[in-house]
Amino acid sequence: MTQPVLSVRAPAPAEPAEPPEPRQGGPGSPVARVAGVIASRGRRLVGLAAILVIWQVGASRGWLGANTPPPTRVWSAAAELISTGELQHHLGASLVRVAKGLAIGLTAGLVLGLMAGLVRLFEDLIDAPIQALRMLPHLALVPVFIIWFGIGETAKVALITIGPIFPLYINVFHGIKGLDERLIESARSCGVHGLALIRRVILPGALPQILVGLRQALGIGWLSLVVAEQTATTSGIGFLVTDAKEFLRTDVVFVVLAVYALLGLATDLLVRALERYALAWRRGYTAK
Question: Rounded distance, CA 249 to CA 86, Å?
Fold first, then answer.
């Protein structure tokens, strides 16, 4: 008798399970990401808020001296200057000066750093004079610039120009020199030479150090502006400080100091944003 043949069917492959959608408020949800960004920004404001509280309490109780105004009085003075348009006028004049000085100084520091870092001949010719000049306190060169350029705008822009050159030059130069030679040799072995090597290997590798130098240079640029506008000027927030001291308006003096601080913070945040964009490929240590 013929035995029946049993057909055994292989089980149909199970359909891949779709990944579960992130729950509303879960770690990967848009709500969680937005909440994380808000929490991060909020933590950054805690330090500034603490300074304002300490300032308010210390000024109100006389711990910071009898003539130190509290933040509430400084805010009132700022509102008065804004309503009359005086603050906007002087701030505009200062921004024009610092823009001219930084444009020249940052360009010079970047070009000199690239020349010295990429070409040995330029390093031998440029590095020693720059190292000697950067030891001079550039803020003490005000009398020299007045002798050379007079008391007009040229002397002020020159003082703002000279300060940022050196920190940017140092960071560009050492950013290039600090590259691992094996990376450059590997790129050359893959056929990358000349400008392509500079654009694709050297500059990206030196970019973190260059951006550090940019942050330092911008800070020195604002510091140079303060000193430049203290001498023979009739416009600018530095002039506003000098005029306020003559009339014992300490609240106006603190308004200008707060403006300087906010300008420095704004430029630092701008460079941080540039870092996040330009260094998106880099995975650095993130503190928890």
Answer: 15
- The pTM of the full predicted model, rounded to 2 decimals, is 0.76
Q: Which residues contact 72 (CB under 8 A, 6 or more apart)?
A: 56
3-state class of 127 per DSSP?
A: helix
CA distances, 52 to each of 1, 66, 76, 79 (Å): 101, 18, 15, 17
Point out the residues of the chain with pLDDT beneath 50.
Answer: 1-8, 10, 287
Buried/exposed code over 182-208 (b: 16+ C-beta within 10 A; e: otherwise): eeeeebeeeebeeeebbeebbbbbbbb
d(Cα 154, Cα 152) in Å, to the nearest integer?
Answer: 6
Main-chain dihedrals φ then ψ at residue 285, nearest 5 degrees:
-70, 130
Residue-wise burial string across 92-130, b where 16 or more C-beta atoms lie within 10 A, e elsewhere = ebbeebbebbbebbbebbbebbbbbbbeeeebeebbeeb
d(CA 147, CA 142): 9
Q: What is the pLDDT of residues 263-288, one digit of tens each?
A: 888 888 888 888 888 787 776 555 45
Measure the CA–CA gap between 86 and 200, rounded to whole angstroms: 48
| Alpha-carbon span 178 to 59, nearest angstrom | 48
Identity of residue 103: A
pLDDT at 288: 53
Block residue for tokens 């006389």: 62
- pLDDT tens readout for residues 101-112: 999 999 999 999
CA distances from 176 to 35, 127, 132, 204, 206 (A): 39, 14, 21, 10, 5
